[in-house]
Amino acid sequence: MAKIAIIETGGKQHLVTEGSVYTIEKLKGSHKAGEKLTFDKVLLVDDGSATKVGAPYIDGAKVSAELVSEGREKKITIIHYRQKSRYFKKSGHRQPYAKVKITALP
Per the structure, how many domains does the chain have? Predict the structure, then answer.
């Protein structure tokens, strides 16, 4: 069985495996493609024989990753409408994201 970990980033939890690429919330600060990242909020690590569970995080555990790219999702349209009152508002939103490749698990 492959080694897995659960990390927390951007207010969400992600189940990650080594060598996989994941789309996560945009990271604070400026980063460039190919830059090394470290996630230290590790909630769970499983290597197939033993499982470590944090309370809430595992002390000293770090997941290493590499930034593949940054971008923005497809545009979504938000419409607010009230009938018979001439009220209509339309706006759009594109959520920023970061793609990361996991390089090493604890």
Answer: 1
